[in-house]
Specification:
single chain; about 200 residues; Arc Repressor Mutant, subunit A; 2 domains; 10 helices
Length: about 200
């Protein structure tokens, strides 16, 4: 077992990482605080010093993601609404998604959908994703533009689950961006069969 040592911030981060790992491995509902404490090599009392419940742990790692997404949204709103701005926004979104634990948080959300569906954190993450899609499609807010923007984001998310076999994280991210950019580059086109 790994011992939790170091500063309070380090301890909180370690608890978050281990809890996220367990929630993803065996599910949120099937994971107890006792199991988290055991994997960390600490007592439940030590764990309670930092977090009173599993919900507290989820809220803590989601809060970091939300802060990062809020900064991304603020930045994206200042980008041009053209193809260059859309690609830059998606590239930064992808970097947030694949980097610094973002991927683990998204895997948690994907693998614990029924729990997250009723958790406030799930709605807050959905709201941010909808806001990013809105920014991506602002040059063409038609239903086709909105759908292309949302599907571009889903290409990034779906790459975790749709791509099987031996593929590195960098290759996965590059392929997801290629597919997503194909969708983004078509924002503003008239859909086939209309007009």
């Amino acid at each position: 077992m790994v011992r939790v040592t170091g500063s309070t911030g380090d301890t909180r981060s370690r608890i978050q990482a281990v809890a996220l790992e367990l929630f993803t491995e065996q599910g949120y509902e099937k994971t107890s605080l006792r199991e988290i404490a055991e994997r960390l090599g600490v007592t439940k009392a030590a764990l309670y010093y930092h977090f009173k419940s599993k919900d507290d742990i989820v809220e803590s790692f989601v809060a970091d993601r939300l802060d990062r997404l809020d900064r991304l949204i603020e930045w994206a709103a200042e980008q041009p609404a053209d193809a260059t701005g859309r690609r830059a926004t998606l590239r930064r979104y992808s970097a947030e998604f694949f980097g610094d634990g973002g991927r683990s948080v998204m895997q948690f959300f994907e693998q614990n959908r029924t729990v997250v569906k009723h958790h406030p954190a799930g709605q807050m993450m959905r709201d941010r994703m909808l806001r990013v899609a809105e920014l991506l499609s602002r040059a063409d807010p038609s239903p086709a533009g909105q759908l292309r923007a949302m599907l571009a984001l889903f290409a990034v998310h779906g790459s975790l689950f749709a791509l099987r076999g031996e593929i590195s994280g960098e290759e996965r991210q590059a392929l997801a961006l290629d597919v997503a950019n194909e969708l983004l580059d078509r924002i503003g086109e008239t859909p086939a069969g209309s007009g």
